[in-house]
């Protein structure tokens, strides 16, 4: 018997809810109008939109600056290790212990700094993704209401960080390119207004 992984349970529940909604919705909406469903690849919107590219580029720039500092600190530690190794035979024991203690302290400080930098970058990336998702969701909801959609599903894609339990969707149901255009228009308007 195959075990169901914990990650697949939410996807199965979501798929069951979508199917239940679709079938119950078709009965309720049969008299009114047909059910209109669309799919969007949120990761493609983030990667393909101007706002998404800018936000991810800001995080990348911050990471590259910090990487340069980390590399410089690593070089300083390696130089000190090399110097200690080369001069250890000629040094007095007290001086040698002092240098070893200094090297040990530098290594600890470096590890703390590197950990802080990683957390800071992850935090910045998370904040940018949350901000982008909030903006994207607002655009999707407005688009759906204005165009008579009953349901918009996150369709995912290859390598998508958002997941997406949809196995198949007709290309005609994919609203991703439209959402990117709307998001870019909103971005251009905000940049033009100086926001």
TrEMBL record:
Ranges in a coiled coil: 63-116
Pfam family, one: OmpH
GO biological process, one term: protein stabilization
GO function terms (MF aspect): unfolded protein binding
Signal sequence interval, chain numbering: none
Keyword line: Coiled coil, Signal
Family classification: Belongs to the Skp family.
Protein name according to UniProt: Outer membrane protein H
């Amino acid at each position: 018997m195959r075990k169901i992984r914990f990650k697949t349970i939410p996807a199965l529940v979501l798929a069951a809810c979508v199917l239940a909604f679709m079938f119950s919705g078709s009965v309720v909406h049969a008299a009114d109008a047909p059910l209109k469903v669309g799919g969007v690849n949120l990761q493609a919107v983030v990667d393909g939109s101007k706002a998404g590219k800018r936000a991810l580029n800001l995080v990348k720039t911050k990471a590259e600056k910090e990487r340069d500092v980390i590399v410089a600190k690593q070089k300083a530690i390696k130089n000190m290790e090399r110097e200690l190794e080369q001069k250890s035979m000629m040094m007095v024991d007290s001086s040698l212990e002092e240098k070893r203690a200094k090297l040990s302290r530098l290594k600890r400080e470096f590890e703390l700094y590197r950990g802080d930098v990683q957390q800071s970058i992850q935090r910045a990336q998370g904040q940018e993704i949350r901000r982008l998702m909030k903006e994207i969701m607002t655009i999707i909801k407005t688009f759906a209401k204005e165009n008579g959609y009953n349901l918009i599903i996150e369709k995912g894609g290859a390598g998508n960080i958002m997941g997406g339990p949809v196995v198949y969707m007709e290309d005609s149901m994919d609203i991703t390119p439209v959402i990117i255009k709307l998001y870019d228009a909103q971005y251009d308007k905000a940049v033009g207004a100086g926001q």
